[in-house]
Amino acid sequence: MKYDLTDKNSIYSYAKDLEGKSFRNLCDAYYSVNEDFYSMRAEDAVESYVNIKKKGSLGELVEEMYFNYKANSISKADFPEAGVELKVTPYKTNKNGSISAKERLIISMIDYMEIVNMTFFSSNAWEKIKNILLVYYEWSPEIIDKLDYIIRYVYMYSPVKEDLEIIKSDFYKIKQKVMNGEAHLLSEGDTLYLGAATKSATSKN
What we know:
The structure is a single chain. The chain has 205 residues and is of the alpha+beta class. A hairpin with a 5-residue loop joins strand 1 and strand 2. The mean pLDDT is 87.
């Protein structure tokens, strides 16, 4: 490990070296270091990561090939000892020159059976929101191969007091709706920052 798993500042400092690199750069570096164990070309080895239908694949690539830990779907933060969650996410440049997010950030799945017994600070949502390591890559319709996207910005986000109060309020609005037996009526329009949205191609989750 080239960083301290228990120290968010160490994790952030190591992540800053991602800026300016493409995902192909990460793959090439990974397989050059581990060439004694991998005989296949990097392009072949990462085929599963770059399947355009597989959302989150670039995030998994960063987790496994840069931070050297196995991607998982557990409710705890990606770096539990440091309380840091990693999010690899695209941004785009609009026609007027402004910059905006390409897609929403998925924080955690809502467990309708568990949320009724949670406070905000005991929730898996807070576990993943309190320190988010945001790795932004630049999306462009001209780029065909996802490995050629370039990471432009790395930022450690922790909610400031004003934002945190809004996020807490959003959490309890979602919780109350579940407790009222109205989980099926949850909508992103109910809240300001923390939204309840369906996930998966069929919008069943």
